[in-house]
Amino acid sequence: MLPDQEIDVLKATNEAKLLMDHLPSVDELPVLPHLRQSMDVDLAVNADGRVYLFYDGQIAEDTDYALYSIDDSSLTLVSSTGRIQDIGMTVHKPMRKYMRTGESIFVIEMNNGTPGKIVNIPMIIHEIGF
User: Residue 121 contacts by C-beta under 8 Å, 6 or more apart in sequence?
Assistant: First the structure.
C-alpha cells in the first residue's frame, strides 16, 4: 500500500498536457459512434427469441458478439478487438420479453431492400437489476 501523501489535487500541473498528448486517435477509440448515426437500422424479434438486426451501411469492424442490456434496453455490438458500438435505438417494450430468451442475433446487411451478408453472432444478456 502506498503511503498517504499530502498533495494539492486542484493545483495546476503539466500532467494534464501529458495526458492529452497520450490520448488515442479517433481510429483507436474503444467506443464507436452508434450505428443510427450513419445508417438506417431496424430490429426484429420473433416469439421464439430469434433476433434480427437489419442495417444498410457498413459496420466499422467485424462483430464478435452482441450485448443486450435489460436495464437500459440497449443493444451493443462488440468487435473482436473489444471496440463497442451501440445500435443507437432503444429496444421497444413489446420486444423486450422475447429478447430475454434470445441466444444469438442475425446481423443482416441490406442492399436496396435485399438481404446481403448475414452473420449469426452470440448475444449476451446482461442485467444488473436497477
Answer: 63, 64, 65, 66, 104, 105, 107
Q: In this predicted structure, what is the pLDDT of residue 13? A: 60
Quick one: how far is CA 11 from the chain centroid?
Answer: 37
User: Beta strands 84-86 and 41-45: pairing type?
Assistant: unpaired
- Long-range own/partner contacts, residues 2-9 (CB < 8 A, 24 or more apart): none
User: Do 36 and 87 form a contact (C-beta atoms < 8 A)?
Assistant: yes
Instruction: Please state, rounded to an integer, the average pLDDT across all residues of the chain.
Output: 86
Q: What tens digit of pLDDT does each residue of 53-111 get?
A: 999 988 888 999 999 999 999 999 999 888 999 999 999 999 999 999 999 999 999 99
- Whole-model pTM: value is 0.76
Rg (CA), the chain: 20
What does the block give as the cell for 52? Answer: 434480427
Cα separation of the two ends of the chain: 34
Helix (H) or strand (E) holding 105: strand 104-111
